[in-house]
Each structure stands twice: as structure tokens, then as C-alpha cells.
Amino acid sequence: MAEQFGFKVLATDGNARRGEVLMPRGTIRTPAFMPVGTAGTVKAMYLDQVRALGSDIILGNTYHLMLRPGAERVARLGGLHEFARWPHPILTDSGGFQVMSLSKLRKLTEQGVTFRSHIDGAAYEMSPERSIEIQGFLGSDIQMQLDECVALPGEEKDIERAMELSLRWAERCKTAFGDQPGRAMFGIVQGGDKPHLRARSAQALKAMDLKGYAVGGLAVGEPQAVMLDMLEITCPELPAEKPRYLMGVGTPDDILKSVARGIDMFDCVMPTRAGRHGLAYTRRGKVNLRNARHADDPRPLDEESDCPAARAYSRAYLHHLVRSQEALGAMLLTWNNLAYYQSLMGQIRDAIEARAFAECSALISEQWARGDVSPL
Length: 376
What we know:
This protein is α/β, with parallel strands linked by helices. The chain folds into two domains: about 15-270, Queuine tRNA-ribosyltransferase-like (TIM Barrel), CATH 3.20.20.105; about 275-370, no CATH class. The protein has helices at about 45-50, 60-65, 70-75, 80-85, 95-100, 130-140, 155-175, 195-205, 225-235, 250-260, 270-275, 310, 315-325, 325-355, 355-370, and strands at about 5-15, 15-25, 25-30, 30-35, 60, 90, 105-110, 115, 125, 140-145, 185-190, 210-215, 245, 265-270, 280, 285-290. Helix 13 (about 315-325) crosses helix 14. The longest helix is centred in the last third of the chain and has 27 residues, at about 325-355.
């Protein structure tokens, strides 16, 4: 394990990068998918399972944890690693996205944002400094700057104002974070769907010489083509020797295409949320276990998977669990989905090392396109 935070690129294939983020609590193999542990738990999973599937890092959510159980309480109990029994790296987001999306009553100023909790209506203030302080109480290894994320499509003047505010907040977060050996603070590129604003944001953040850079404000309803266009603008503006993190993305197809444009790290609630709603991700594409066609199907989700949830239970049983709203259904499908995502990331890393990423991507996409048709 590294004593300090570091990043090294081990192999490239086109713009795709195979690398390692080096941290005192462990090495993160990139491209990496980070399961989302919103409130100190990856929903419907034991964290030991999450680790066994190949996860090097999980994500915690500043907004939710500050509301319940409270960041100061988590600190008194030994920090989020001890609290959740996850001794490996943790990335916390800043809470900004949830403040903007979940809080009906909020007021944004240069200083920060005041808002009311979606749980009980209590009033809170979140400034760049407070966001970093909360993340410090949680004890996360990678901390994110506070930013303003605007919905797309949006007016250019609103997107530009939010981007400029986010840059000023990044400077304040950098100052508040200071020098924390072994930990890192990442800046967040904003600019909506405007190429020139994305480039300006990336260039300004690069000048701050941060330890890593995220691309934010995407996967918020815009078409995939727009997201990919913004990545093609943004990634070349970011330093090649620093990790690049695409926030809140996404589908397996989003991940494949974003890796091809130079992204190293991903997070998304999709595999866990889908699992709780009866949807399985497999190498043959998505399988909706709510569908009646699975009621008499004795086949497993994927007979070749290393994951018992995919290999050892019949589709008929999974269908029954989902339709009966049994908790085990959500647990098994979430297990399957995270297993598939981590298997996909392993395939991607191996393909980049072999300089066969384009061929690997084509084969994976072709298998998705063929789909999963029941023989019954």
C-alpha cells in the first residue's frame, strides 16, 4: 500500500487507460466502478460481498450522512470506514447534487447554499468549507469539491454562472482541504452541454493542480451522444497524469464508450437500484425478472458467471421472489448486477493491457445486441 496518494497509467489503447490509484488504504485498479453506498451501506449487500466481487472503493454520500446519523456522530464512532466496516478506500461526494435535486426549499449565494432537509424540514447551511469539513469528519480518502450542477437542457447564461461559481468554490475547497497526506480532493468540471464552457472549466481546474478531476453535470437527462461529445472536449484538457472520474455514470454501454474517451473512474446507483426493481444486468443484456415469461424458466441468469446469484438460482425462482416482493429477490439481483459490473471492468482492464479494447468492446456490444431470448 502506498503512503501517499498517487496515480500511474500502466497501459493505454487509443484514449483508453489502464492504471492504478495508489492510496494508504489500498490500490484502486482503473478503469474502476465504485458501488454507491449512499448512507454508509451498498443497499441490499454485505460490504464483504461487495469487496469479494472486486470492488476496490465505494462511494459515500455527504448529504445523506450529514442528515442521518450526522457527520460528527460518525467521527465520534471512528469514521465511516470503522462505522461501516469497510477498511478500503472511500470516496465521498460533496452533497451539492443532492442539495440541488432533493431540497425543495433552498437558497444559493456566493457563500454557499441554505436548504431544508427532505427528511424533516430542518434548516442547514452548506458552504465549500463546510462540505470539506463534513467529508473530513467522515474520514473519506477522496473528497469532492462543492459545485453547482444545473439541469440540462438549460440556458447558457445559467450554465456559465454555475460553472464560474463552481470554480470559485473549488479554490475555497482546495484551501479548506489543505495538505492531507494520503488523501485527495478532486475538482469537478462543469459547463453543461457547452463545449467552450467545458474547456474553460477544465483549464481553470487544471491550473489549480489538484490530485484528480471529475466530470460533473452529465447523465442528467441529456442524450448519450451529448455526454460523449462533452467527454471528447473535456478529457484532452485534463492532465494525463491525474485520474479522471465521470460522476453518476452509468449503464454498461455508457461505461464502455466513456473509457474509450479516457475516463478512469465511475459511480452509479443503476446496478443496485435496478436490482431492487427486478432488473438484472448480464453479458446478454438486461433481463426483466418481472416479466411473466420467466415464471417457468429453470435456467439461471448466466450459467458461466462466477456469482452464485447468477449461476445457482433459476429465473423462475428469481421471478417468484420479485413478484412476491421478497427481500431476497432484491439481494440476489443486486448481487448479480454488481458482479456483472465488476466483471465488465475486469474485462475492460485486461483488454486495454492487451491493446485489444476496440475488439473487446465490439464483442461485448454484439452480445448485448443479440439479447437474451428464452427457449421456452
